[in-house]
Design goal:
Elements lengths: L2 H19 L6 E6 L5 E7 L10 E7 L14 E2 L2 E2 L3 H12 L3 E6 L22 H13 L4 E11 L1 H10 L19 E5 L23 E6 L5 H13 L11 E6 L6 H9 L9 H6 L8 H20 L1
Parallel strand pairs: 3-6, 3-7, 7-8, 8-9, 9-10
Antiparallel strand pairs: 1-2, 2-6, 4-5
Helix pairs in contact: 1-8, 3-4, 6-8
C-alpha cells in the first residue's frame, strides 16, 4: 500500500472513530511538578467523554523557541479558554476530538525565562527540556486516564530538539545505551529541529544518535537545518539499522518549497484559525505533483504525522 493510501485509510478510520469519541475540546490551563523543583505550566486537552475510559492514548506537545502561547504572551486566552499558537492549539484540539489526551508544556514560564528565545536559548533544549517532557509523562501517568505504554511525543523546532534527545537510544552525548525501562515514549515525531554540532551525539557526519522507538521527522527543503538533520537520520538508518520494521525506524520527509516553520506559515497562508486542522480534501489536493508550497507541506506533514501516531498509539 502506498504512503498516500495508507495515510488516507488510517485517517478516515480515525475520523469516523473520533466523531463518536468526543466533542471539541477547548483545553484547560494547569500546572504540574517539573524537574529540579520547578512548577511547569501547561494546557491539557481531553476528550469530552474522558471519564468513560482509563486507557486513553496521549501525546505530549513541545513548543519551539517562541513559546507556546499566542503572540508569545504567557496565559493568553480567547473566549475564556487558553489561546496557544495556531499550530499547537490545532493539534491539541484535534487530538482530543479524535481519541487522545494531549498536553502542551510551557518550558519557559516556570523557570522565569523569557517567552521568546529565538535569538539565544536561555532554557537548554538538550538538557532541561527533555526533563520537562518526562515530567509531563509522569503527570499523565498519574491521572488514571492514560495508558502509560501508549504515550507519544511531538515537538517543533527547539522543542523538536528536546524530543530528539528524549527519543535517543543512548544517554545524552554518550554512546552508552539507556536502560529499556528509561524510555517513556512509544513514538516520537518532530518538525524542523536543529541537528548541528550543538546537539552533541557526535557531529552530524559522525553521529551516533538513533531512536529507541519509531521516529518521524518533517523538514522543509529550504530549511538551513535540513542537511544536518538528513545526515543524522541517514546515519541512524545506515549505521544503526533504524529502518522499517526494526521497531526503531527513523524517517525524514523533506518538503520541496518549504522553509523552517512551514506549518506555521502554511496556516497563515490559508487563513486557518486556532481550531482548524487540515482536512482530508486538502490532503488529497496537496498529494498531486507540483504541490510544492508551504501550505501543502503543512497539510501533508500534519496528516502523515497523525497517521504515524495512530498506527503506534491507537
Amino acid at each position: 500500500m502506498s504512503v498516500l493510501a495508507k495515510t488516507l485509510a488510517a485517517l478516515c478510520l480515525a475520523a469516523v472513530g473520533g466523531a463518536a469519541l468526543a466533542a471539541p475540546s477547548d483545553g484547560a490551563q494547569i500546572t504540574f511538578a517539573g524537574p529540579s523543583g520547578i512548577t511547569l505550566d501547561a494546557v491539557i486537552y481531553k476528550p469530552d467523554n474522558v471519564a468513560t475510559r482509563d486507557d486513553w492514548p496521549a501525546i505530549v506537545l513541545m513548543h519551539g523557541c517562541s513559546g507556546m502561547w499566542s503572540s508569545s504572551v504567557f496565559g493568553a486566552a480567547s473566549g475564556g479558554y487558553p489561546n496557544l499558537q495556531k499550530h499547537i492549539e490545532s493539534w491539541g484540539r484535534y487530538l482530543a476530538d479524535h481519541g487522545y489526551i494531549a498536553i502542551a508544556v510551557d518550558s519557559f514560564n516556570g523557570r522565569g525565562d523569557p517567552q521568546t528565545q529565538c535569538g539565544a536559548a536561555v532554557t537548554n533544549p538538550y538538557t532541561e527540556r527533555p526533563q520537562d517532557a518526562r515530567a509531563a509523562y509522569a503527570y499523565l501517568a498519574g491521572l488514571g486516564e492514560v495508558n502509560p505504554v501508549r504515550v507519544g511525543l511531538l515537538g517543533w523546532s527547539q522543542g523538536a530538539e528536546a524530543a530528539m534527545v528524549e527519543a535517543s537510544a543512548t544517554v545524552y552525548n554518550s554512546t552508552t545505551l539507556r536502560a529499556d525501562n528509561d524510555h517513556l515514549f512509544e513514538a516520537t515525531a518532530v518538525f524542523y529541529p536543529g541537528c548541528g554540532a550543538a546537539m552533541q551525539f557526535g557531529s552530524p557526519a559522525s553521529s551516533w544518535w538513533r531512536p529507541f522507538n519509531d521516529f518521524k521527522m518533517s523538514m522543509g527543503y529550504d530549511d538551513s537545518f535540513r542537511a544536518n538533520c538528513n545526515t543524522r537520520i541517514q546515519r541512524a538508518r545506515d549505521v544503526y539499522g533504524s529502518t522499517a520494521g526494526s521497531g526503531h525506524e527513523a524517517t525524514i520527509t523533506i518538503y520541496d518549497g518549504a522553509d523552517h516553520s512551514f506549518d506555521i506559515d502554511g496556516r497563515t497562508i490559508l487563513g486557518m484559525n486556532d481550531t482548524q486542522f487540515p482536512t482530508s480534501a486538502q490532503f488529497l489536493a496537496c498529494s498531486v505533483a507540483g504541490s510544492n508550497t508551504e501550505d501543502c507541506a503543512m497539510i501533508r506533514a500534519d496528516w502523515t504525522t497523525l497517521s504515524f501516531f495512530n498506527d503506534r498509539l491507537q
